[in-house]
């Protein structure tokens, strides 16, 4: 139950969102202005903001359910704040479907002039097709395009936002997907394809060894390989925070987080199985995975040992 001195949950979540936006990276003047406008719009907003400011300044007094992880190293600035109350609550970044344009996103590249779309490790791209559809490519992705509405995902991940009257036919090593219109995230790793349909019309999918087509309704996520589907659940909008260069996690096992980070850096990144009991909630900036590892080491009982730029071990402290 909320105490009389604790802000209401909605204001606290929004305050944590603004703090993460302003502290997790270099904020723009527009972001500062928008945050100030939000704080001035309602006394409850300002109270929640001041509550979290005080909590950050007095880490030892923060209620357990208010801050999941906060840096305690003097070598790391307040922009290294990893998590504030409810930051990973769904819908903050992408409510109603997140769309980017060339003014918002320096990764914008315009119309493709090749039948192959690729990114290296740590690289992201956004491309606008001739029908106005937008595709964002995450790190280490390889897509072939035999024609304008057919995508062959060899490996990696992309977010496709389509309003085209012509369906997109998507192939992965696991099977076939038909997107009629909407916002769909597709990821293929380790013989498994993951789909998250955030909005639009239902998607049809079928594995290469399946007999029947499966329908995925908007607002749902599903995993499948060539033979079967699994893990049908509501979509988690935090999983596409990579589109804006962030990794947003809530109660994620540390080994899983380290595995995610390994997708964005070259070389070997290993973690001891003795750390499988640790979980992490936080907002991380993907442009520098070394900084993320330093933040984790400052906040958790772990050692990060860097043998070379291409070999890093994470072990118990």
Automatic annotation (TrEMBL):
What GO terms are given for molecular function?
sigma factor antagonist activity
**Entry keyword annotation includes Ribosomal protein:** no
A Pfam entry, by short name: DUF4880
Q: Which residues form the FecR N-terminal domain?
A: 15-50
Transmembrane helix listed as a keyword: yes
UniProt entry keywords in alphabetical sequence:
Membrane, Transmembrane, Transmembrane helix
**Where does the FecR protein domain start and stop, copy by copy?**
116-201
Q: Which domain of life is it from?
A: Bacteria
Q: Where are the transmembrane segments?
A: 81-100
What is the protein's name according to its record?
FecR family protein
Q: Which organism is it from?
A: Marinomonas rhizomae
The beginning of the lineage is: Bacteria, Pseudomonadati, Pseudomonadota, Gammaproteobacteria, Oceanospirillales
């Amino acid at each position: 139950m909320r105490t009389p001195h604790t802000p209401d949950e909605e204001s606290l979540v929004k305050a944590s969102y603004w703090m993460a936006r302003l502290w997790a990276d270099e904020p723009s003047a527009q972001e500062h202005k928008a945050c100030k406008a939000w704080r001035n719009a309602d006394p409850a907003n300002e109270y929640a903001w001041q509550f979290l400011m005080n909590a950050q300044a007095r880490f030892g007094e923060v209620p357990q359910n208010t801050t999941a992880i906060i840096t305690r190293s003097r070598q790391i600035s307040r922009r290294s704040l990893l998590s504030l109350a409810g930051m990973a609550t769904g819908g903050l970044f992408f409510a109603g479907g997140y769309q980017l344009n060339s003014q918002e996103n320096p990764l914008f590249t315009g119309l493709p002039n090749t039948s192959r779309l690729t990114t290296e490790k740590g690289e992201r791209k956004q491309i606008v097709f001739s029908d106005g559809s937008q595709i964002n490519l995450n790190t280490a992705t390889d897509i072939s395009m035999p024609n304008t509405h057919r995508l062959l995902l060899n490996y990696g991940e992309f977010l496709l936002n389509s309003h085209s009257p012509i369906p997109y036919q998507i192939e992965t090593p696991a099977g076939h997907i038909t997107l009629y219109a909407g916002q769909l995230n597709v990821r293929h790793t380790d013989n498994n394809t993951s789909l998250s349909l955030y909005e639009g019309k239902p998607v049809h999918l079928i594995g290469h060894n399946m007999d029947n087509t499966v329908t995925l309704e908007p607002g749902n996520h599903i995993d499948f390989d060539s033979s079967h589907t699994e893990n049908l659940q509501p979509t988690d909008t935090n999983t596409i925070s990579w589109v804006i260069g962030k990794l947003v996690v809530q109660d994620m096992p540390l080994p899983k987080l380290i595995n995610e980070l390994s997708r964005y850096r070259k070389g070997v990144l290993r973690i001891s199985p003795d750390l499988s009991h640790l979980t992490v909630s936080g907002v991380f900036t993907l442009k520098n995975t070394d900084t993320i590892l330093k933040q984790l080491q400052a906040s958790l009982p772990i050692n990060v040992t860097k043998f070379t730029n291409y070999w890093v071990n994470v072990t118990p402290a």
